[in-house]
Amino acid sequence: MSREVSERAARVAPASRGSAPDAPIPNLVEQRIRFEPDGSVTAFSGKIEFGQGIRTAFAQIVAEELRLDPERVRMVMGDTAQVPFDRGTFGSRSIAQDGDALRKAAAYAREQLLRRASEKLGVARERLTIADGAVRDGGVRDGSRGLTYAALAADPPLAGEVPDDVPLTPASEHRVLGRPRARVEARDIVTGRATYVADVRLDGMLHGKRLQPPVRGARLRSLDDAAARAMPGVRVVRDGDFAGVVAERAAQAQAALDALEADWTSPNGDDQQTVVIPMREDDGVDAALASAAHVVEASYVLPYISNAPIGPSAAVADVRADEATIYAGTQRPFGLRTEIASALGLAEERVRVVPRMPSGTYGRNSVGDASFEAAMLSRLAKRPVLVQWTREEEFTYAPARPAAVLDAKVGVGADGSLVAWRYDEHTNAHGYGFAVDPRIAPFTSGRNAIPPYRFGKGRITLYIEPTPVRTASFRSLAAAENVFAIESLLDELAFAARTDPLTFRLRHIDDPRLRRVVEAVAERATLGERSSAGLGKGLACTIYHGTYCAQVAEVVIAANGTPRLTRFWCAVDPGLVVNPDGVRNQIEGGIQQSASWTLLEELGQRDGRITTTGWDTYPIATFRDAPEEIDVHVMGDEAKPSTGVGEPGTVPVAAAIANAIFAACGARVRELPIGAERVRRARPNG
Amino acid sequence: MKYRLRVNGGTRDVDVPRGTQLLEVLRDDLGLTGARYGCGRGQCGACFVLADSGRGPRAVASCLMAVDQAATVEITTVEGLAHDSELHPVQKAFAAEDAMQCGYCTSGMVISAVALLASSPKPSDAEIRDALAPNLCRCGVYTRAIRAVKRAAG
User: Fold this and answer.
1) Dihedral sign computed on CA atoms, order A640, A644, A645, A648
2) Do domains B2-80 and B89-153 have the same CATH topology?
3) Taking CB atoms and an 8 Å cutoff, what residues of chain A touch B132?
4) A268 pLDDT exceeds 70?
5) What is the dihedral of CA A251, A253, A255, A259, to 10 degrees?
6) What pLDDT was estimated at residue A140?
7) A15: DSSP letter
8) Per-residue pLDDT for A532 more than 90?
9) Is B111 within 8 Å of B36 (Cβ atoms)?
């Protein structure tokens, strides 16, 4: 990532704050809630479950407002033939957005059922009770005439837009929300019966492989497929630059693919420019820096890393002459439907996207490579086709998390207060599609670039640099890089100002919810107590899409410099908590995954081509690397709306670890991943 | 080529090319998709099954075992651990600890844990970490899974 490019770059119009591309989607009760004759409820969401636990949480939300056991609520998620439109499952927004929509739809349905029952029974509304699938006259002791939800909802069919001010069950009366609940899928998962996208089997289904172009945009000049065609059970298919094989057996398809001899043209280099987006431009930043008592100037560097799902991309497509069904591990079923319809030349309503669990993919399924390939292969072969990428294909062709260089120059006044904050974020496009659009990029590539502190005069600029590496979405997008830099900086500034990191942060925090989690985690982790040699604790925090998260990492440094994460503490406030154990699981997992990014991960690449091919060259954390304890303190604020927990736990981890390493041995490491060599080079005694 | 396999307490006949991976046979010929494809190189543990040649069950990568070799041992997949509707103690413990997120690696972890407890009924933390180290989990449920194995050990 060269800074020369930045200087030549065109400046684009500043983003107007609050212009996130989220036009409201009408919330219609008939699209959300269906009352079944057996007394159960089916509820509908366009969001996708891939391990975050929202299928369970949504069922809890609907059950609470409809006074049902959560067992009686079945969620239908993401099937474009069944659920209301949704933009996608990302940004830890599912509970905040669709959880809210479902909650209001269920509450509205409950109120309508009560109103209807009151009319039918001729009983005042206040005398009615509603529970377990029936509305009853609470004034009658025994043998009360009950009316089932289904009967009440049927005539006329319950329909209409859910008003925003529908009365919700107050927290004091919650019986389901805020109580731990096991995952709906748990039994299927432990018995192996859970059906992932790669487990879909259709009659007449073939195994397909696309011949991947060596680089994106390469054109297929010639294809020698004689050897592949000679193989039993194999067909070679081609449509322009798209070529592939289908076969009766997976191994045959792979052997045939390996037998193809292709000659590709190199694509013309894109003439892409750096996109420069000012995110904050106060007057007087340079003067404030000049007057500062202490100035810290530092650069932080993050490499390309891989989403690295345990299950490589897969999809099953059944494309007919005038319709198509795609079984996909997508995060954007409606977006994928549009893209597949366009690729196949079908009307959107002739394409159905049926989500199936992928493995966890952490943003990678914002783009639907395997689904597109399966659709094309199925169209050409006129049979249902399963595409299963290999591990090597997943590393080589999947998008990477962008690299980043964060240049900061920050000043502290004589009284120990921040006075000036200059921050240049150089990164690549985070997200898919419109990732460099200046109306959107501050929320994706510039996510969390603005510190949650009172920092004086600020100049914060986002530079989205072109790269030959294919980049897209990875859990928390740019928040990971920005919070690594910002929270490392806070410790460096505290050190310069001779203040401890906790006191320094608290002095600059105005938001009481952030203060609360920071103080809580510091206490639980006994931050500030003297620790033994070679052991250190580091603090970091963030506000991520409305969730407050503060963390302390404990590391031990071996004599050779190897950092080992031994314990971890987190305090998190995601507003009203739906499933406390679900919150803990997501935060724990986010910490474990982010610790792996921080300490171990870097994708190899040469001129934009990924050279990493397997787990041997891309080590991630294993059972042996897991900390002894991850203490997650859930301190939700039930008066505040629910916010997400899928991503926030990952965000402060890198800085917490880097700060712990500094506390342990005096090594300030500003480049990830942090291995023994970087620690040795940075520590005072080598 | 015809093979007679002993799988989950029964015998299954398959007709597949010689050298076909056991993982492919399980998933595509026997409809047992609980063993997952993860890497095809024995580096991730997602495809683990139990193989018993008479000396007790061992967790093996079914992506590295050819059907020819599989025909000489007793195979148990994750689908074969529960008896009727009664889950294996390890399965119960993983569910009770919510030691999963996406669950893609769970089959392999459960298999490794069953093999561990068969040879070491009261494993230490270090033994659990070593025994399950071949099972990669990207969602990061390691600490929960360690708790689950301990719970299963009683």
Assistant:
1) negative
2) no
3) 623
4) yes
5) 180
6) 67
7) P
8) no
9) no
Among chain B residues, CA nearest to A250 = B24
DSSP H helices in chain B: 22-24, 67-70, 89-96, 106-119, 125-132, 142-153
Return the number of other C-beta atoms located less than 10 Å from residue A608's C-beta. Answer: 11
Where do the domains of chain A lie, and which CATH numbers do they carry? 29-190 (3.30.365.10), 198-267+313-388 (3.30.365.10), 275-304+400-682 (3.30.365.10)
Q: Are A678 and A669 in contact (CB under 8 A)?
A: yes
Q: Do B37 and A198 touch (CB under 8 A)?
A: yes
State the amino acid at position A195 in one-letter form.
T
Verify whether the Cβ–Cβ distance A622 to B100 is below 8 Å. no
Nearest CA in chain B to A582: B98
Give the pLDDT band of residue A607 (cuts 50, 70, 90): confident
3-state secondary structure of A341: helix
Q: Do A183 and B100 touch (CB under 8 A)?
A: yes
Tell me whether B34 touches chain A (CB under 8 Å).
Answer: yes
Chains A, B: CB pairs < 8 Å: 182
Alpha-carbon torsion angle B37, B39, B44, B47, nearest 10: 30
Q: Are A407 and A444 in contact (CB under 8 A)?
A: no
Q: Distance (Å) from the C-alpha of residue A629 to the closest C-alpha of chain B?
A: 7
Picking from A249, A311, A625, the nearest residue to B36 by CB comes out as A311
Q: Are A615 and A309 in contact (CB under 8 A)?
A: no
> Are A448 and A479 a contacting pair, CB within 8 Å?
yes
Given an 8 Å threshold on Cβ–Cβ distance, is B102 in contact with A51? yes
**What CA–CA distance (Å, rounded) separates A606 from A69?**
55
Higher-confidence position of A619 and A433? A619
What is the CATH superfamily name and number for domain B89-153?
[2Fe-2S]-binding domain (1.10.150.120)
Between positions 106 and 135 of B, the ones with CB within 8 A of A are: 106-107, 110, 125, 128-130, 132-133, 135
Name the residue ranges covered by the structural domains of chain B. Answer: 2-80, 89-153
Topology, domain B2-80: Ubiquitin-like (UB roll) (3.10.20)
Interface contact B141-A186, CB threshold 8 A: no
Would the pLDDT of A5 be above 90?
no
> Under an 8 A CB cutoff, do A357 and B103 touch?
yes
Helix (H) or strand (E) holding A539: strand A535-544
CB atoms within 10 A of CB A646: 30
Q: What are phi and psi of A340, to 5 degrees?
A: -70, -40
Whether A466 shows a pLDDT value over 70: the answer reads yes
With tokens 């109120």, the residue in question is A111
Contact at CB, B146 and A623, closer than 8 angstroms: yes
Tokens encoding A100: 């809210």
- The burial of B151, by beta-carbon neighbours within 10 Å (0-12 exposed, 13-18 middle, 19 or more buried), is given as middle
Mutate to test the interface with B, among A191, A327, A586 (most CBs of B within 10 A): A191
Indicate the pTM of the whole model.
0.95
Assess B96–A contact: CB distance below 8 Å, yes or no.
yes
CB A578 within 8 A of CB A60: yes
Is B104 close to A360, i.e. CB distance below 8 A?
yes
Quickly list DSSP for A30-69.
HHHEEE-TTS-EEEEES---SSS-HHHHHHHHHHHHHT--
A349-407 pLDDT, tens per residue? 999 999 999 999 999 988 899 999 999 999 999 999 999 999 999 999 999 999 999 99
Chain A residue closest in CA terms to B98: A182
CA distance A394 to chain B (A): 10
- Is B36 in contact with A581 (Cβ distance < 8 A)? no
**Chain B residue at shortest CA distance from A393:** B39
Residue-level pLDDT at A15: 36
